[in-house]
Amino acid sequence: MAHFYEYLEFSSDEDRENQLDVYVGIELSPETESKVKALNVTGDWLVMAEPYCPDCVEIVAYFQRITKLNPNIKVKYVSRKDNKERKHFDSDEQQQAVIAAQKIPSIFDIHNKTELVLNEFPAFLKAKMEANPEKFDELKADFRMGKFGKEVEAELVEILTK
After folding, report:
1. 143 vs 8, 16, 39, 162, CA distance in Å?
2. How far apart are the first and last CA of the chain?
3. What total of structural domains would you count in the chain?
4. Predicted TM-score (pTM) of this structure
5. Alpha-carbon torsion 81, 84, 87, 92, what sign?
6. What is the β-pairing status of strands 43-48 and 106-109?
7. How confident is the model at residue 40 (pLDDT cuts 50, 70, 90)?
8. Which residues, 6 or more positions from 94, have their beta carbon under 8 angstroms from its beta carbon?
9. What is the distance between the alpha carbons of residues 138 and 144, in angstroms, rounded to a whole number?
10. In the predicted model, what is the mean pLDDT of residues 42-62?
11. N or C end of the chain, less CB within 10 A?
12. Which domain holds residue 147?
């Protein structure tokens, strides 16, 4: 499986540069930094994503920035186009869970078993979209432009600290 810099090679140079620009621009809150640094349990995560996907760009930038704060957190990346190749996975169960998720980005907790914890959009955004279906496209655009960064950060920290 790929690590972050290998993940960046999943797409074109332009997509890689865009992903890196968003990643470099992320500034985490001091509260997030202290919570994540304080984690003393090992965490293993699998992210199915592609740098060309605007939803992935947001989620991966925050997830990678947050997880880099703690060496106990291990993150692996897999491209959706590679999810049919067994060599990219630790087990058949893991591969089947990733194939079943279909949408990107998808984040899986793979510490004990393979558990899908985020699929396509964060839960807070899905709730906003369901509550305001007439604003679905506007909310999606705002998300992709980084207008919900603090909410993304908070949700990812919640996922990591469960």
Report:
1. 21, 19, 28, 24
2. 24
3. 1
4. 0.93
5. positive
6. antiparallel
7. confident
8. 46, 108, 110, 114
9. 10
10. 95
11. C
12. 4-160
